[in-house]
Amino acid sequence: MGKLYVVGIGPGGIEHMSLRAKEVVEKSDIIVGYNKYIDMIKSIVKDKEIYSNGMKGEEERCREALKLSKEKNVALISTGDSGIYGMAGLILELRGNEEVEIIPGITASSAAASILGAPLMHDNCNISLSDLMTDYEDIKKRVKLAAEGDFIISLYNPKSKGRPHYLKEAIEIIKEFRGENTPVGVVKNALREGQEYWITTLKDFIDEEVNMFSIVIIGNSKSFIKDGFFITPRGYKLEK
Amino acid sequence: MGKLYVVGIGPGGIEHMSLRAKEVVEKSDIIVGYNKYIDMIKSIVKDKEIYSNGMKGEEERCREALKLSKEKNVALISTGDSGIYGMAGLILELRGNEEVEIIPGITASSAAASILGAPLMHDNCNISLSDLMTDYEDIKKRVKLAAEGDFIISLYNPKSKGRPHYLKEAIEIIKEFRGENTPVGVVKNALREGQEYWITTLKDFIDEEVNMFSIVIIGNSKSFIKDGFFITPRGYKLEK
């Protein structure tokens, strides 16, 4: 009888994995995951049995991981936190009597924030702009209510070829509630190979360079830019 | 010339730190932090110079960390992610010309979620119920808009002696928008010594056992409980 570990490896690469996540991957017999993610940690999985498939094979991958775990220890890996837009939910939905443990990781908005400065210091939300599994009307409603509530907003999956205008529309909705100088940060490939980032404002934001591997963070009404850092104050009254 | 690392150690203990966070702490000359947090990683800091003070000494602690980093390498540690309700913002607000790097960690809502199952699989938000630095009216407005937007809601600092009724009031606001069977999970001391958790529903929720070291997670309209796990579906149409 084996066990299935659903592991968030963090932004990518070994160094931002938790010690527990690394240990669990190293002691597993079989590694299951999307090829690109397995590649990111290949130095610790190279001698192992691997079950890998392409994007959009999520259900098949999860069923296979559960089946394999009846006999052996299996690590199903995803980037970021396995519990935020990751594989933890699907595994628990499909689970029969297999033993499952969820190992959390650093989610993409935390990784992106650490590059930009400290944008997420107050109440904040994560919204995915992907409409593969959510109605676009519901997504827009969420963006509007988050903007109205003055949440710092992290947009996951901000742009893809199939829906090139969603990000622009989300920014327009947010502009109805926030000043034009509100900071906006974009991070591509946060804390992994190919990292790029820039900080701008709602007024000057252009979506051209944003892609699926980006996170877009929009500040709240108190966020500001200082010395190149995007900062949201926690609210301390400083003794200056 | 030294450098200041602002390090999120994750939920507590060494094993949920990232490899990078551990490495940075190990190579720093001086460790700065609240005594309780330093205690959680004492096995890797015991031979180091330590500057520690109590709760509510945040500004003094940050000023000291910046000053010390002019000469030596300093790690300023906090639990969770240093960038979410942590010390990253205050450091960057107070920073002059010191070199600063933010090292992200696993935030408390991710840690709590991994214990409960997979509650955060869709759009979600973090709200702190602490009114030390935020007006209570603003907090209630955010809870209402998050509930209206069908966000999964993670409540940080859900209860303290000075504001015993806020959590109850937040739950009442959420009930206006969600069904009475919506799952609610409470995790105390997630992934560290003293961990306890329970899963209930909006209807049956009682706040008695909740304290400052707890995270309370309220599901969205599609969340459910299965085999003791709190699950929010991502939206996959499963083949069954």
Automatic annotation (TrEMBL), chains A, B:
A Pfam short name: TP_methylase
An annotated GO BP: methylation
Pathways involved: Cofactor biosynthesis; adenosylcobalamin biosynthesis
Cross-referenced InterPro entries: 4pyrrol_Mease (IPR000878), 4pyrrol_Methylase_sf (IPR035996), 4pyrrole_Mease_sub1 (IPR014777), 4pyrrole_Mease_sub2 (IPR014776), Cbl_synth_CobJ/CibH_dom (IPR006363), Precorrin_MeTrfase (IPR051810)
E.C. no: 2.1.1.131
Molecular function GO terms recorded: precorrin-3B C17-methyltransferase activity
Hydrolase recorded as keyword: no
All copies of domain Tetrapyrrole methylase, residue ranges: 3-204
Keyword field: Cobalamin biosynthesis, Methyltransferase, S-adenosyl-L-methionine, Transferase
EC class of the enzyme, as a word: transferase
Cross-referenced PANTHER family: COBALT-FACTOR III C(17)-METHYLTRANSFERASE-RELATED
Protein name per Swiss-Prot or TrEMBL: Precorrin-3B C(17)-methyltransferase
Lineage of producing organism: Bacteria, Bacillati, Bacillota, Clostridia, Eubacteriales
